């Protein structure tokens, strides 16, 4: 998850990579944040988060429905506008 910290009107975005204890946490004013290493460039981070249809296996029927309901109207909006959908 990402969260934003505003310091002197300058927002800084952080990404949670580890929590102690457990998998879930709440970031509150008293939360201690450790920053290590070099900042990650947003373009590098977005490239790592790319998930495609090839990453989902065993759901052919559901994938066909998703493509029909979501992808086709986005790729061919004029066709769906003509049909009144």
Task: Provide a descriptive summary of the structure in words.
With 85 residues, this protein is α+β, with helices and mostly antiparallel strands. It is 35% helix and 14% strand. It contains three helices and two strands; from the N terminus they run ββααα. The chain has helices at residues 42-48, 60-75, 77-83; strands at residues 2-7, 10-15. It has a two-stranded antiparallel sheet with strand order 1-2. α2 packs across α3 (77-83). The radius of gyration is 20 Å and the shape is elongated. The model has no long low-confidence stretch (mean pLDDT 76).
Features of the shown structure:
3 helices, 85 residues, two-stranded antiparallel sheet, 2 strands
Structure in a nutshell:
The protein has 85 residues and is of the alpha+beta class. 35% of the residues lie in helices and 14% in strands.
